[in-house]
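At your convenience, could you comment on the folded chain following this short note?
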Amino acid sequence: MSTPHETDVLVIGAGPSGVAAAVMAASLNLRTVVVEADSVGGKLHVIGALENVPGNWSSGPQLAEALAADLDRLQRAGRCSVVQGRAVSVTGYDDRAELVLEDGRALSAQLIVVATGVAALAPPDADWISASTGVSVPPLWRTEPADLTGRTYVLGGDRPLGTWLRTHPHSSTMLHVLCPPADDYKIAEVAGVERVRIVPVSHVVLSQMAHGDEWSLQVKDRQGERKSYVAKTVLNNLGNTPAGLDGLASSEDGYCPPDKQHPRIRVAGDLRSAQFQRVTTAQGSGAEAVLASYYASVLKPC
């Protein structure tokens, strides 16, 4: 006799991939529960421009509002429910998958789709930056052109750089982007942009000046030469670290490849790989996670 499940599909995270998974599951008449710790839409709320997303969306918050409306529509139709809570661990078994929340609650389902996304790195977390624990600089994506004073240095060449430039096309501020080798493939989209000066580096020592309103940057370039800079404005564009859960299999970079997980646990969205961090690929992976399990007979009737 099979073990009864509380639901068919548990989706962890209500960003683009999580909502896509919930919509797909509901369309297959699967009992669906979405677990979200914060707000529907996730990082969409801080994306100023969505140039590469089909559907004529102009900004992340606009798409986040539409995703919230999708979940609201499914809930009103009785096809989905949303649970507020922070997931901490998942476990796959032969006949079910289980989720444990931070408050101790445990939920079970035939399938769990983990779409927890990524969290922003801080300077002390980056292996090419030396900075005191607790040092924090403002994120690029939250910064308005009017906030930029003096020479502006950007730590890292992650993709929000291109998004910021598209969001603020009339800003004349030159962004001096300190770029480690690992970010070279990311900055191709801004190559040739007049408002960007790429500074290839191998290591940076970051510290705040004694009077507190300027930063010291001791930079070693890729040939080993050292230079010192003083800046009024330093911004964080270091990229992300995967926001995974206990119980997921991860690779050396901390991301969670889909093919390494238990058959009843699927990962979707940005969590899969640093190179798949796009809204459209996240949505496709969320829908695919449900469909693949559905056709593989993981989602069997209870």
User: Anything to note?
Assistant: The domain at 123-236 is CATH 3.50.50 (FAD/NAD(P)-binding domain).
